[in-house]
Design goal:
Elements (H helix, E strand, L loop, with lengths): L2 E3 L6 E3 L10 H13 L1 E4 L6 E4 L9 H15 L10 H10 L17 E5 L14 E5 H5 L8
Antiparallel strand pairs: 1-2, 3-4, 5-6
Length: 150
């Protein structure tokens, strides 16, 4: 006699006692009651329908969530012309500025993280050209938003 696994309680049961994919009618009832609580949603990346118990779920899978996160990271460093900041360009700007924050003069030896800063922000029409990029520490760059530099 073969055994099947119940979809609700995940216990094995003899196949001849089978009620659909469940070991009993009570397991079937509890399974479908739980399904009714789930809301059908549409993934904002791949547009597939999915059900999730969390009311704020927007992706159907880890893969879609991961891909959306990668897309956000890629889009952060793209200007209006579609130009990205390459690793070589990043290194050459840091080197040009002596690996020192343009605003406060801090270096990585001071325990800060260096980032690139746009003189004219992308949001205000700036680009990723070398003459629009300077080295800044994370503290100076993160505090100013798209307003004026400190």
């Amino acid at each position: 006699m073969s055994k099947s696994r119940c979809k609700a309680c995940r216990e094995y049961y003899p196949s001849k006692d089978r009620v659909g994919s469940f070991c009993s009618a009570s397991c079937a009832a509890s399974y479908y009651a739980a399904i009714d609580k789930l809301k059908v949603r549409r993934c904002i990346l791949c547009h597939k329908e999915f059900m999730h118990e969390r009311s704020d779920a927007i992706y159907c899978s880890y893969e879609c969530s991961h891909e959306a996160n990668l897309n956000r990271q890629r889009n952060r460093i793209v200007d209006q012309n579609g130009n990205r900041i390459s690793s070589n360009q990043r290194w050459s700007i840091f080197s040009r500025d002596g690996f020192r924050c343009h605003y406060c003069g801090a270096t990585p030896d001071d325990g800060i993280k260096l980032v690139l800063d746009h003189i004219i922000p992308i949001a205000k029409g700036g680009n990723n050209a070398d003459n629009n990029l300077i080295t800044a520490c994370n503290l100076c760059n993160s505090g100013k938003g798209i307003g004026n530099a400190p």
